[in-house]
Recover the amino acids of this structure.
């Protein structure tokens, strides 16, 4: 068995983020290259020829994410990027429905379970499985949430937690909420996307799941832990619901200085929420619900 890294880590930084920001042949080629390397690493892991590097510093933050049946075949690739971080999380928790947990291949559970990945069963809370079960099971310390379809660079986790603050909601990828001439919130598609940080927190900054975010459970009030209200107002966007939860507490969002290209795994667009939330206007309907119910977004 060897500890050598077969997977060539994705590079972070503003230059690579700018280069691969827009979709196109170069972006697709780079993503395909890293996916193929991850697949080879996963095969070597199963043969006992690769294992995560030991001796790295471990921090107190857990990583929480969720997945579902269309993405289970690629889940090991994402978990490899999380185990290969320069700073090790205290634990990686993957929330699954009972049906998806049964469908997940045994070797995935055994191999990753030996390196601090816990596969936990919860109710089908859709994308809210990413964060709500952590709080419901009693998590009181801050934890990091992330998506299950992104290739994460090795320094992503360390860079994110390094900028955690006591009075802001911190995220790695952010948009900026914009308004029309009548001071109404623009359509989600018209928001300023993938903004750069100016070092200042803002209520108009919107954290997206692909870059990760840091949840402090005590900041989420009881009304935002109410499942029935959550599914009534914002059933398919944890990003919007968590934004509203922090706005309700007067907590602004903050974009970290670290940037990286968000390279998705194959099929992420087809099986993810981009189709219903973005292409079909689902985010706009949920934003309208939140505006009418909470009247939170400042002008």
């Amino acid at each position: 068995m060897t500890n050598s890294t077969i997977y060539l880590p994705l590079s972070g930084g503003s230059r690579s983020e700018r280069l691969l920001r827009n979709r196109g042949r170069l972006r697709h080629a780079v993503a395909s290259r890293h996916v193929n390397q991850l697949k080879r690493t996963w095969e070597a892991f199963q043969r006992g020829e690769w294992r995560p590097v030991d001796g790295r510093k471990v921090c107190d933050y857990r990583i929480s994410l969720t997945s579902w049946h269309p993405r289970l075949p690629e889940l090991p690739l994402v978990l490899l990027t999380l185990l290969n971080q320069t700073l090790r999380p205290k634990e990686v928790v993957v929330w699954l429905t009972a049906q998806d947990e049964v469908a997940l291949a045994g070797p995935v559970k055994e191999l990753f379970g030996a390196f601090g990945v816990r596969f936990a069963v919860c109710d089908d809370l859709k994308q809210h499985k990413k964060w709500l079960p952590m709080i419901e099971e009693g998590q009181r310390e801050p934890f990091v949430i992330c998506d299950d379809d992104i290739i994460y660079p090795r320094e992503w986790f360390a860079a994110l937690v390094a900028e955690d603050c006591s009075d802001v909601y911190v995220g790695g990828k952010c948009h900026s909420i914009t308004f029309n001439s009548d001071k109404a919130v623009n359509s989600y598609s018209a928001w300023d996307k993938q903004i750069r940080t100016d070092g200042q927190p803002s209520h108009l900054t919107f954290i997206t799941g692909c870059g990760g975010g840091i949840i402090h459970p005590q900041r989420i009030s009881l009304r935002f832990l109410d499942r029935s209200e959550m599914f009534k107002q914002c059933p398919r966007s944890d990003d919007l619901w968590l934004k509203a939860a922090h706005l309700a507490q007067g907590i602004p969002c903050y974009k970290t200085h670290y940037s990286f290209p968000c390279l998705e795994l194959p099929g992420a667009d087809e099986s993810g929420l981009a189709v219903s939330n973005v292409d079909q206007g689902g985010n706009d309907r949920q934003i309208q619900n939140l505006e009418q119910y909470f009247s939170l977004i400042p002008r």
